[in-house]
């Protein structure tokens, strides 16, 4: 989703949308007419809050036509909000600043993502496989790396019957222990018990960059883990180095990318393919009040706070102007990451490898009461828009399917980011060169008969922050 922060003064009067953040509405003041509510004006505090929620949703909500005609305003606020949601809505949320319908991802609290896998020898037992670890996070400092394995949490072996409870522990924010193991010649060897506390350090999302070369053709590789605008300098630097190396192909690894800034997504797209400042980046389709909004690259860039790449000419100077782009995805590829995949397609061939993305084809903004003194503490974040590219292609709520499905767990243990032994990278290089172009040494990998059971990174993707438009 896309997040904007909209200051809503009263339930049924004038709304002032701040021009620095309200690019979706393209106005400095949007006037909202009084809405006839299907219930008498409430006099109790709960009823007044729910009336404010109903009024806001009826005006902004993408599926406002499917809202119940006679909602029960006596329900607790969170329950009342849920009662208004369309059955296809997976992402709208509400918070009062104390409790929230959203849950924090494991990665945001401990700095690692994981998947559960089964082994045919014991199909009821599950092994946790670490997919990615943020450098210098709690998990990193305890020694966890991509490919690390664990079989128990808080001294409880993980099984199919208790995995939901184990997942709750790993999302709790509380200190827990995990029993780590290594697999050697099909044997499990204990490696020790680690204790992890929630203390996440923000990650530079430019995790890895590489160059692959063969027969005079240079391919750039970028493992990019979030569209975090504060690191746009790192992104521009990485792309500049790839361009200076003469890359004519590029692999963009978004397999665990939960989205983020729309302006950063536009910056990366402009550095990958041949577009103009006036080229369409995305189309936002709202309800009858929001209408249809078309945004150019330049229009999106004007919303950026970080000056790096805010001028289109800065991006053009670093652009690879590719005719095709290889993008690696999984079910953990979400929101702005999906928007990048879609926004590039009108201007270049996208060869998507891996798994189907999550399917967050929508945008949202936060609605809060900014009266002085503030009378309502609840904050709404409903779905406001559906997203489409310059060709009008959208409706990917079930995810964007890859050109070729590849299971990253088919090589076990997992390989470091960007390794030619990683099956997704390997397929991209095979397509580009007709062979695996780079030979790496001291990278051990074996093929083990494991079967993916559940991917926590994909579960975290459901909880991931929406695409953010800065204030």
UniProtKB/TrEMBL annotation:
Gene Ontology molecular function, alphabetical: endopeptidase activity; serine-type peptidase activity
Protein name according to UniProt: Tail specific protease domain-containing protein
Boundaries of every Tail specific protease domain copy: 189-407
Gene3D superfamilies, per the entry: 2-enoyl-CoA Hydratase, Chain A, domain 1, 2.30.42.10, 3.30.750.170
SMART domains per UniProt: TSPc
GO BP, sorted A to Z: proteolysis
Any Pfam family hit: Peptidase_S41
